[in-house]
Amino acid sequence: MPPPVPSRVRLLSSVPFALLLVAGLATGHVDRSYDNGIPAAARSSTAWSVVPSAGGGTRPAEGGRPYFYAEGVPGAVLEDTVSVVNPGAKALTVELRGADADNTRDGGLSLRKRSTDTGAWVTFAERTVRIPPRTRADVPFTVTVPGDATPGDHPGAVVASSGGRDAAVRLQLRVSGPTLAALTVERVRAEGEHISYDLVNRGNTVLTPRLAVWADGVFGEVLERGPRTLPVELLPGRRITLTEPWPDAPAFDSVDIRLTVTAAGGARDTATASARFVPWGVLAGVAAVLAAVGGGAFWRLRRAGGLRGRSGWGLGGRPRRTDSENELTGAVT
Q: Segment Disordered: which positions (predicted)?
C-alpha cells in the first residue's frame, strides 16, 4: 500500500498536475528570474534538468544540495521534494521513478534497471509531470523504509525521463542501526605495465578507499607509493576490479608486491602477490642467434670433415692408409 501523500500535496490535489508550480499558476505569472536554488547551468541552457529542491530533506542547505540525503529507522516514511526545471520555450512532460545505485566493474556508478532496494521504496506525488515553459516544478516524494530493512547505506537515485533522455540525482539513504566499515583487497596480480586487483566492500556503508603500493625485488625496493585516495565510491556488497599503472616495472627481476587499502571507519586490508619479470622477447632473440651460430659452426665442421675424407689425408696432415695398402704391406716378407 503506498504511503500517504504529504498534506501540502493533498491541499493541491485539485490543481491539474497535482504539483506545486513555482511560477504561480493562480496569478498567471511566469517566474523568469530562475532563482530559488536553480543552478546557473540550468539558467543558461535550454536543456531541462532535475535537482533537489532548496531547503528540503533531512539535511537542508541554503545554497542548494548536490544530492538527496535521507536517514530514518526501519518503518519510517521520509519526505523530500525534487525540482524539475524547464527553461525552454515549450512545455515539457517528464516521467519520474526511483532507482537502485550500483558499481560498474571498474568502479564507476550506474543505475540498476530493476529496483529492489531504495528505488522501490520511492513514491512520487505524481509520476508523470507536465511543466510549462520557463517554469520549475517541485514534486514531493516519500521514501518508505521497510520494517525489515538492514541498517547502513542504501544508495539510490531519483530519475527523470523525457524524449529519450534520462537525468538523475543521487539519493543517499541511511537506515539507522549498527554500521560496519569493512573491505578486502583480493586477486592481486602483475600484468605487464600495471598491477590489477579487486576491492570488495564487506560492510554496510559506502567507502572511499585509500591505496598504498610497495614492491621489493631481488636487489631491493623497486616501487613505493604512499596512501592516496582512489576516485571510487565503493557501495556496500559490491566488488570492483581496478588497475595501478606501473610503466617502469623491472625488465628482469623477481618481485614481491604488497597492496594496503584503508577507508573511513577503521576499514583496512593488505594483500600480497609475487611476480617474475622475464624479457622473453630478448631471450627468444638471443636463443635464435645462438641457434644460428651453432648451426653454422656444425655445418662448417661437417663440410671440413667431408673434404678431408675425399682428399685421402688424415688428421695431422698424414696420408690416410687404404685397405689395399694394408694388404700389400702384410704380404711383404
A: 312-333
- Nearest-angstrom CA–CA distance, 6 and 1: 15
Q: What is the pLDDT of residues 229-254, one digit of tens each?
A: 999 999 999 999 999 999 999 988 99
Single out the residue in 156, 175, 194 at which a domain terminates: 175
Give the model confidence (pLDDT) of 8-51 as tens digits.
332 222 233 334 444 433 323 223 333 333 344 444 456 999 99
- Tell me which of 155, 175, 195 is where a domain ends: 175
Using DSSP bridges, classify how beta strands 68-72 and 165-175 pair: parallel, antiparallel or unpaired: parallel
Could you give the number of structural domains in the chain? 3
The pLDDT tens digits for 167-189 are: 999 999 999 999 999 999 999 99
Tell me, yes or no, whether 333 lies in a domain: no
Residues 80 and 100 in one domain: yes
- Check if the beta carbon of residue 136 is closer than 8 Å to that of residue 83: yes
Which residues, including other chains, have CB under 8 Å from residue 77's CB and lie 6 or more apart?
Answer: 3, 4, 142, 143, 144, 145
* Spatial contact of 53 and 79, defined as CB atoms under 8 Å apart: no
Average pLDDT in the 128-147 region? 97
Same domain, residue pair 237 and 207: yes
pLDDT class of 55 with cuts at 50, 70, 90: low
Other CB atoms within 10 A of residue 87 CB: 20
Please check whether residue 158 is in contact with residue 169, taking contact to mean a CB–CB distance below 8 angstroms. Answer: yes
